[in-house]
Amino acid sequence: MKKLLTLFGAIGLMSSSAILSANVVSCGDTTTEDNSKPLTYKEGKKDSDIVELLKKEDTKIGTEGKPLQTEASKLASDYKDTTSEEYGGIQIEGTVISSFLGTGGKAFIDEVNEIYNETGDLKIGQEGTKLVAYLMTIKGTKGESKFNLAVIKVEMEANAETGKMSTKFSKDFKIEVTIPAE
So which residues are the signal peptide here (predicted)? Predict the structure, then answer.
């Protein structure tokens, strides 16, 4: 849970650490849902645009913080679920793409919002003791020519009376991406 709070702080979501960290003694319930709808490309955009963005040198995927690794139009690395070790007992489907996190209330950076129809409308924010943020993840197996991207909504809420925090993860959007021929 501390890693998630750190992540929220890094993207500027937690403007006041007193709201959550001072009141939260332990983690509460964690739920996961799959309400996914298709993630769609804006006119003129396609798989090669997101692959190109993922391969940029400043793209940070997972704990290694490296861009997308491909060889001969196939994945050169595995992109597995984000494990509990990384996020305090929680499993997130896919590997988190931390460099895609937006600032100033935007869920994602402009480069992502220029590719997908749905991402530009997603906002991060804080309402009282409730935080809402979005993560983009990648999931794929080394040697495959396709991978999945997912947009995961994260809702965290602190209960001042019990001192526990509940977390809800829901997969809101997904798309299968084919790596274009090099």
Answer: 1-22
